[in-house]
Please model this.
Amino acid sequence: MNNNITAVRKDFYQRIDRLGLFPLWERLHNLVPAEPAAACVPALWRYRELRPFLTEAGQLISAEEAVRRVLVLENPALRGQASITSSLYAGLQLILPGETAPSHRHSQSALRFVVDGQGAFTSVDGERTTMSPGDFIITPSWTWHDHGNPAADEGGEPVVWLDGLDIPMVRFFDAGFAENHQVPVPPLTRPEGNSGARYGMNLLPMRYESSSRTSPIFNYPYARTRETLDTLLRQEPLDCWEGIKLRYVNPLTGGWPIPTIAAFMQLLPKGFRGQPYRSTDASVFSVVEGSGSVCIAGQRLNFEPKDIFVVPSWAQVSLAADQECVLFSFSDRPVQQALGLLRESRESF
Ligand code: GTQ
Model:
């Protein structure tokens, strides 16, 4: 290019820069890429490696003082942003016997996926549910919630769960509010199991109408999920990409359990070698049972139970199981679907 033109343009760019302007033509391809250029990268957290640090955090600070004692899983390419993908947050929360994480509420929706230990409980708007490994539990936007654990002499043991929240999404919209309850543990107003009986049995109370966009079930227990996967493994053809994969559902609508977050559970039979696929919804996986590997954009990562890994948007991914594997995952699929942005592609080797 003519040197003079280059210099004249550069001068122009400098003069408009002062007014907070820049020329689109210099950056158009970055702003409107031919395909997703994900900001996040593939990553895996080995539970075996990080568990001792959770234990240490448990000695460092109480749940009461911390409010939420969580080690946040930050995507290596998104350090400082409390994000595991561009739109989602994930963290591992520890609650020790006898502890209380005081009640608060916020615009952000949360899911809890129980990873280690059992018997802790979470309360949502006056109803409590007890946690077991593999349970998928929801805290809807703007509902009061506290967490607790029975004292050691009442059988309490350390419990760890994976928190998944739409924190980056709500931050993107600058739409977040939060407040603390006046008391750490507000009184219970319904018996345990009430919402499961009301909404979780393929039946609904007459004249029930909800204004919430979130599923009225707040614990989807693992025992039932596991049994369903097992039955379908014996009765259904395997999907070549995903094995047996089910999505958690809001029984009122047939839609997603949380307006901003989809959640899934899948079973890969021993020896499964999945075909490659890609999707615009980046996914966070928590390994429930079995060991295997995931190949993400040509990079193979081996996983064991309780490990967590992340698959970026539009990265080619394939799953392989050495033993029978059960994988939980979540993504921002409901939002992409609502906006007409979701794109998927299934490939074969
Ligand atoms: O349990 O309410 O990991 O408010 C981050 C923010 C958990 C919670 C997190 C939260 C919570």
